[in-house]
């Protein structure tokens, strides 16, 4: 079974631009979560989507948004990029199977804002 | 809100020896999941082990085992027979239950484990 895939793997953008990151979950997983990882703040939850609806949201400004499609693929958008948005963005897909919770991460997208 | 604390930023272990990584958490919930994730230099987060709070038995996965102390809100990871490939950053994480609710994980700051040959 294929794992969580994220595209692109690396991205360099300029301040003020916007960016869209993509995540394809494991087949059958309907929940997709996004996290931002930086050396200073560690891993921080951005938001979660389940069946095309945002189910939970972290404490990030409105410049960070996302959506989920009917095939469970998810996109994350960051508008008006700031230097502080440079980070590794991780996507995770999850499923509850026979009472056991499973969550798996993708390889991440490394975003550099210059 | 839940918090996860990993107070040791770095640890080192000799190959083939045993090492224990500490984690404490704070929650008012009675039902939850706890996880240890490994993040090697490749940056891919890998699930190491999972513990359901309602289970009294400590989880074990091959060389990895946990010491789950619910009353003390402690969740440590023991790595036996350490291997060079175990060198990575390890994150302790918390998730509320029951299932059907959100899937948000709350992470600790992580601990960097180095393995000496």
> What structural class do helix, strand and pairing data of chain A support?
mainly beta
Q: Which percent band covers the strand fraction of chain B?
A: over 45%
Tell me the quaternary state.
Answer: heterodimer
Helix-strand pattern of chain B, N to C?
EEEEEEEEEEEE
Largest interface: A-B, 26 and 24 residues
Q: What is the structure about, briefly put?
A:
The complex is a heterodimer of chains A (114) and B (117). With 114 residues, chain A is mostly beta strands. Chain A is built from no helices and eleven strands.
Describe the structure.
- Chain A is mostly beta strands and 114 residues long.
- Chain A is 0% helix and 59% strand.
- Chain A is built from no helices and eleven strands.
- In chain A, strands 2, 4, 5, 6, 9, 10 and 11 form a seven-stranded mixed β-sheet that branches. In chain A, strands 1-3-8-7 form a four-stranded antiparallel β-sheet, with no helix packed on it.
- In chain A, strand 9 and strand 10 (100-105) form a beta hairpin.
- Chain A is globular.
- The N and C termini of chain A lie far apart (37 Å).
- Chain B is an all-beta fold.
- Chain B has strands at 3-5, 10-14, 19-21, 24-26, 32-39, 46-52, 60-61, 64-69, 74-79, 88-96, 105-107, 111-116.
- In chain B, strands 2, 5, 6, 10, 11 and 12 form a six-stranded mixed β-sheet that branches.
- Chain B is globular and about 40 Å long.
């Amino acid at each position: 079974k294929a794992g969580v895939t994220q595209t692109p793997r690396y991205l360099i953008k300029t301040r003020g631009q916007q960016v869209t990151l993509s995540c394809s979950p494991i087949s059958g997983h309907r929940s997709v979560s996004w996290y931002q990882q930086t050396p200073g703040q560690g891993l921080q939850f951005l938001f979660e989507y389940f069946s095309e609806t945002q189910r939970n949201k972290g404490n990030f400004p409105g410049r960070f948004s996302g959506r989920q499609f009917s095939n469970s693929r998810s996109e994350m958008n960051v508008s008006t990029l700031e230097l502080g948005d440079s980070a590794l963005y991780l996507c995770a897909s999850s499923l509850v199977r026979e009472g056991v919770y499973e969550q798996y991460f993708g390889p991440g997208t490394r975003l550099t804002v210059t | 809100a839940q918090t996860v604390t990993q107070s040791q930023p770095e640890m080192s272990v000799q190959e083939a020896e045993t090492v224990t990584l500490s984690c404490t958490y704070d929650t008012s919930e009675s039902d939850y999941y706890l996880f240890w994730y490994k993040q090697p230099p490749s940056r891919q987060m890998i699930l190491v082990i999972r513990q359901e709070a309602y289970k009294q038995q400590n989880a074990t996965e091959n060389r990895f085992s946990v010491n789950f102390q619910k009353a003390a809100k402690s969740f440590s990871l023991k790595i036996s027979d350490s291997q060079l490939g175990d060198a990575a950053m390890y994150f302790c994480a918390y998730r509320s239950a029951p299932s059907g609710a959100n899937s948000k994980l709350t992470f600790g700051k992580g601990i960097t484990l180095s393995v000496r040959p």
